[in-house]
Structures are given as C-alpha cells and as structure tokens.
Amino acid sequence: MDGERVDKVMSSLSDSMSRSYIQKLIKDNKVLVNGKNVKPSTTVSEGDTIFMEIPKSIIPDIVPENIPLDIIYEDKDVLIVNKPKGMVVHPAAGHYDGTLVNALMYYLGDELSGINGVMRPGIVHRIDRDTTGSIIICKNDIAHRGIAEQLKEHSINRVYHAICHGILKDDEGTIATNIGRSQNDRKKMSVVPENQGKKAITHYRVLKRFEKDKMSYIECRLETGRTHQIRVHMAHIGHPLLGDTVYAPSMKSRFKLEGQCLHAKTLGFVHPVTGEYIETDAPLPEYFSHLLEILN
Predict the structure, then answer these.
(1) pTM of the predicted protein model
(2) Which regions of the chain are under pLDDT 70?
(3) What is the reported pLDDT for 59?
(4) What pLDDT, on a 0 to 100 scale, did the predictor assign at position 15?
C-alpha cells in the first residue's frame, strides 16, 4: 500500500464502506494521517498511522418475526438455512423487517454471534435478495471466527446452480478477474483493472444446454466470494444470468422471473468447533425446477 491514495487504502480495508463514503469522511476531517488532516488524494507511506472516526449510525430496533425457516442443518454452534427468493439477509435502509435476521431472532433469540453487531447477528456471509439457497448462521462468536477464517482462506466449498443466456461453447472453464465497485453505478459491481478491486475466481461447468431457447444450465464453484461475483463474471463473458435485471437489463426471455436464476446449492466446511467436515445440499426451489422442466 506504500504510495497509494489514502481513500483507496481505507476502502480496500473495508467491505462495508464505499470509497465515496470514505472520501466524505476525509473531507469532514474524520480521517487523520499521522495526526494531520488530509485530502482523499493524499498518498500514504509505510509506517504511517491512519486514524478514521466512523460516525455512529442510528440503529433501529430489530424486531423478531415469526417467519418460517427452511433449516437444512443445525447444531449448538451453527445453523444452515435454505433462504427463499425475495428475502433480504439482514436489515438495512429500506429493509428493517421481513429479513432473515428478523426470522433468526424469533427462532434463536439471543443465541446468535455478536461479532457483526446488532444489525447482523449471526451473519458471517450473505447472498443476494433474489438468490436462493444455503447460508451459514453462527450461534456464537467462536463459530463465527472459525467460519470467517475459512471464508477468508477460500476453503469453504460453495457450489451454485444457475441458468444463463446463450450456449456456452466449452463444457467447463475458469473466469479470473478483479471485481470492484462500478464507477458509473455505485449499486453495481464490475470487472476492473488488475490494480483495482479484489481478485475474483469462478469455476463453471455446463450441466445442460438448451439449444431451442439458447440457454445453458450451469454449476459455478466459487474460489473467492466477491459481491455479485457469479452475476458479474457470467455477464462479463457474454452469458448473463436469466432474470438478472441489474447485469442484463436488455436481455429478454419468455419467462417471467423475479430476479436472477441463481441458487446456492452446496456448502462444505470444517465445523469450527468439532473439526468435522460437513457438507449440505439445498434442493432447487420450485420455480427453478419448473423452469428446467419447461426448457427440457
């Protein structure tokens, strides 16, 4: 990081704050380098001390809600849930109820890890609102730290199933790029130059080709877990996911879908307490199975 801009350094160290938000903190004199106010363009050197004050956010009360959970696996440390389409994982602006966290608080009460704070108790990773499938919930901080470390090391086996536009020529392949926040739309991610963003690697395999509808049923294994990774990567190689209105807004089909056709099917990990290898499988949601029947 020696010689990098301070705003870039701080945004690279944070998964929850955008570069533009960090630039605002710098302009508000909330970021000091060696005790002095700086500009976003100020470069840092090895050995510098950076202090950043993050203003306290107003946290609303998160209300437990009696929302049914499709539980795939549970023990005293972890819980694996098959998340339905349309459910947001944790509360955020505009979504303070109906989330997975609301349901978990009703089901488990205070029996959730607290590392990610009151807005995201038990949440160590997440999947998009319209992506279905497996998500790990941690019931205590020991489990949370263990799963977080495996996520950081990319040692968790995460396999997704998806339907994409177009006929993939190769039976399998690997997409390796850097992914970062889009400069044109901060709500989107995009493939960026090697000196930007974070390394992202997706391995895909064709399960079936539907020549008539010009679509492919694929399996994707994540080597890394960047935001929107599969969606961005498949769009990048010209095969965006069916129903993805963010990364393929102009791609039309005869099917009416609510969001991308993407399902987190398999999760394999070493239990953070017992050391046992656990692998679970989330069955395809009804809409996905029905779609495959129609395409066949």
Answers:
(1) 0.79
(2) 15-17, 57-60
(3) 58
(4) 61
Whole-number pLDDT of residue 57: 59
Residues belonging to the active site: 128
Question: Residue 250: what pLDDT?
Answer: 87
What string of H, E and C letters represents the secondary structure of the chain? CCCCEHHHHHHHCCCCCCHHHHHHHHHCCCEEECCEECCCCCECCCCCCEEECCCCCCCCCCCCCCCCCCEEEECCCEEEEEECCCCCCCCECCECCCCHHHHHHHHHCCCCCCCCCCCCCCECCCCCCCCEEEEEEECCHHHHHHHHHHHHCCCCEEEEEEEEECCCCCCEEEEEEEEEECCCCCCCEEEECCCCCEEEEEEEEEEEEECCCCEEEEEEEECCCCCCHHHHHHHHCCCCECCCCCCCCCCCCCCCCCCCCEEEEEEEEECCCCCCEEEEECCCCHHHHHHHHHHC
Measured CA to CA, the distance from residue 137 to residue 158 in angstroms comes to 15
Distance CA 296, CA 289 (A): 11
